[in-house]
Amino acid sequence: GKFTEAYSLFEHIIHTIPMLVVESRKEVDEVKELLTIAKNYCVALKIEIKRKEYKVSLPPSYSGHTLFLPHTIADYVATMCLPHPG
């Protein structure tokens, strides 16, 4: 996948958010939600990039981070496909 490219895009979003000008409380809440999503994806993507870099066969489990449902399902499927020790 294009994990490094995706990481750069989410990181760019995080760095751009402080420059946003919003006009309503609703927009503030939307920006906060966007920041949370971008941070969670940055963490998940960085874990996956490092896991592949070091060829570690650990489950990509991002259970502590809120990802969109299709990505969470993909995480569970990837975990189930890993060889079990023993």
> Per DSSP, what share of the residues sits in E-state strands of 2 or more residues?
under 5%
Helix content percent band: 55-70%
Major β-sheet, in short? none
Oligomeric composition of the shown chains: single chain
Overall radius of gyration: 16 Å
Strand-pairing-aware structural class: mainly alpha
Average pLDDT metric = 77
Give, in order, the helices and strands.
HHH
Spatial shape? elongated
Task: Write down how many β-strands occur, each being a DSSP E stretch of 2 or more residues.
Answer: 0
Distance between the termini: 30 Å
Query: How many DSSP helices?
Result: 3
Unreliable runs: none
What do these coordinates show?
By secondary structure, the chain is mainly α. 65% of the residues lie in helices and 0% in strands. The chain is elongated, with a radius of gyration of 16 Å. The two termini are 30 Å apart. The mean pLDDT is 77.
